[in-house]
Design brief:
By secondary structure, the protein is α/β, with parallel strands linked by helices. The protein has 2 domains: about 5-200, 2-enoyl-CoA Hydratase, Chain A, domain 1 (Alpha-Beta Complex), CATH 3.90.226.10; about 205-250, no CATH class. Helix content is about 45%, strand content about 15%. The protein contains 10 helices and 10 strands. The protein has helices at about 30-45, 80-95, 110-120, 145-155, 155-165, 170-175, 190-200, 205-215, 220-235, 240-250, and strands spanning about 5-10, 15-20, 50-55, 60, 100-105, 110, 120-125, 130, 170, 180-185. α4 (about 145-155) packs across α5 (about 155-165) and α8 (about 205-215) packs antiparallel against α9. The longest helix has 17 residues, at about 30-45. The radius of gyration is 19 Å and the shape is globular.
Length: about 260
């Protein structure tokens, strides 16, 4: 696929994906969705870590309502086609891919854009950047996995507040509430995220197992988590990287992981 609303590159094992429609602050149009889904699936075969961000002054400003304006006169309208075709598969792909995904939020992560940001395995946010559950302001309900992701990150009471009132939550408060991993000056968001992505890209095969176990634990009970961990340990110890890790530890040298 040729990208018109996206920048994609791979360097040092890191797939750098940049939503690139700054005039709309990277609004989630059908074209953006199609290109982003393609890029994420591509990164799953070409990289060992992913850094996802937005160009210009916004991460992603939410759905491009121009895509649905011609549906307003239809009483049976259903704007969810954008979710079915693009954005739900994007959230699922980020969650299920073996590679760790870092989302780097500069500016607004609003609407479905907030869902994409929160789907990251690690989330870096600018000090003046913010998350916004904008749905109540336009008569819609949360999408992009926001109700699930937000509730598990900050708890039901705080998630309800953000979704019902539609207030912005800026970087420092997002960090305090457990929504993001790190807050840095806005101009350092991407460089910080890329540094972390390069570190992860040098990590062992087991990072994918760690990611899978952590996501599964969000819905699993202790017994199911113990079982997942047991089989994950089996798969991890059969990797080349486990052999290298043990030999490096015994030899008192840095490990040289290959991701297999």
């Amino acid at each position: 696929m040729t990208y018109e609303k996206l920048l994609y590159s791979v360097e040092d094992g890191v797939a750098r994906i940049v939503m690139n429609d700054p005039e709309t602050r990277n609004a989630a149009s059908a074209q953006m969705g199609a290109e982003l889904l393609d890029a994420i699936n591509r990164a799953a075969t070409e990289s060992r870590a992913v850094m996802l961000t937005g160009a210009g002054k916004g991460f992603n400003s939410g759905a491009n309502l121009g895509d649905v304006e011609d549906m307003l006169d239809d009483p049976m309208r259903d704007v969810g086609f954008l979710l079915d075709n693009y954005f739900n598969p994007i959230i699922t792909a980020i969650k299920t891919m073996e590679q760790p995904v870092i989302t780097a939020v500069r500016g607004a992560a609003a609407g479905v854009g907030a869902g994409i940001a929160m789907a990251g395995d690690l989330i870096i946010c600018g000090e003046d950047s913010f998350f916004l559950q904008a749905f109540c302001h336009i008569g819609l309900a949360p999408d992009g996995g926001s109700s699930w992701l937000l509730t598990r990150a900050v708890g039901r009471v705080r998630a309800m507040e953000l979704m019902l009132l539609g207030d912005r939550i800026h970087g420092p408060k997002a960090l305090e509430w457990g929504l993001v991993n790190k807050v840095v000056p806005d101009e350092e968001v991407e460089s910080t995220a890329m540094a972390l992505a390069r570190k992860l890209a040098k990590g062992p095969f087991s990072l994918g197992i760690i990611k899978r176990s952590a996501w599964a634990a969000a819905d699993a009970n202790l017994e199911a988590s113990l079982s997942l961990e047991r089989f994950g340990q089996r798969d991890a110890c059969r990797s080349e990287d486990f052999v290298e890790g043990v030999r490096a530890f015994v030899g008192k040298r840095p490990a040289d992981f290959k991701g297999r």
